Amino acid sequence: MKKAIFLTFFYFITQPAFGENTLTAEDILSKVDEVRSPGNDFSFDLEVEQGAGEDKKNYSFSVKVKDKEKSLVTYTAPLTSKGRRILMVGENLWIYVPKTRMPIRISAQQKVSSGVSNADVARVVYSLDYEATKLEIEKNDDKEDLYHLFLTAKTKAAAYQDIEIWVDSKVIRPLRANFYTKTGKKLKTIVYKDYQQVLNKQRPMLLEVIDYLNNGQKILMKYSNMALTETPDIYFQKSYLSRIK
């Protein structure tokens, strides 16, 4: 009897703080979102680089987020795109092109660059569009536990049907993710890199995108100037897009 009690006690004290018996799939998804999103209202700059040499293309954006589900994306480069704005409110997206009369409705799946969709730029958190449906525990090359999280679209406006994310089980941060169509075709992989201490948390400031629709082309998404910012509500009304300075 004493031996049984000792073994039970030993079992409990040796369990990891974030073991598979502690965190659910939804818990892990929430923690992944906290790594990508510093709050409900914030802003950041984003540079997207693709290609090399004469084929190299750079796009720059200024992004403002409000209540997590509202995003205003302003093109700051190249000069031919400067001043364009993408507005995302819930499941709805519009693009405004300077000197045109009305914003045009677009989809989250449309591209701002090869391999990078509107949703990749405008939406930072996953839980608004996806639900965690399954969780597995895997080992990395160093025999350490990884969480393998499976997400499925819960809105028609979601840019992808399924996403699978591998998460460091010790510090609960995303390492890489695969993105799939409704037919199960893998569109791309994103690798989360260059973790830096930003707004009191380690956050990935570089995302490497591997685009399988373009022969595995690599695209870099570089984040900077992340800050907690209060943006006026009116900026997230499509009728106001042409008046933003």
List the topology elements.
Elements: H1 2-13, H2 25-36, E1 42-50, E2 57-66, E3 70-77, E4 85-89, E5 92-96, E6 104-106, E7 111-113, E8 116-117, H3 118-122, E9 130-139, E10 145-153, E11 162-168, E12 173-180, E13 186-198, E14 201-211, E15 217-228
Antiparallel strand pairs: 1-2, 1-15, 2-3, 3-4, 4-5, 5-6, 7-8, 9-10, 10-11, 11-12, 12-13, 13-14, 14-15
What is the compact description of this entry?
With 245 residues, the chain is mainly beta. It contains 3 helices and 15 strands.
Describe the overall structure.
The chain has 245 residues and is mainly beta. It has a single domain, classed as outer membrane lipoprotein receptor (LolB), chain A, CATH 2.50.20. Helices cover 12% and strands 47% of the residues. The chain has helices spanning 2-13, 25-36, 118-122; strands spanning 42-50, 57-66, 70-77, 85-89, 92-96, 104-106, 111-113, 116-117, 130-139, 145-153, 162-168, 173-180, 186-198, 201-211, 217-228. The strands form two sheets. The protein has a 13-stranded antiparallel sheet. A two-stranded antiparallel ribbon has the order 7-8. A hairpin with a 7-residue loop joins strand 5 and strand 6. The chain is globular.
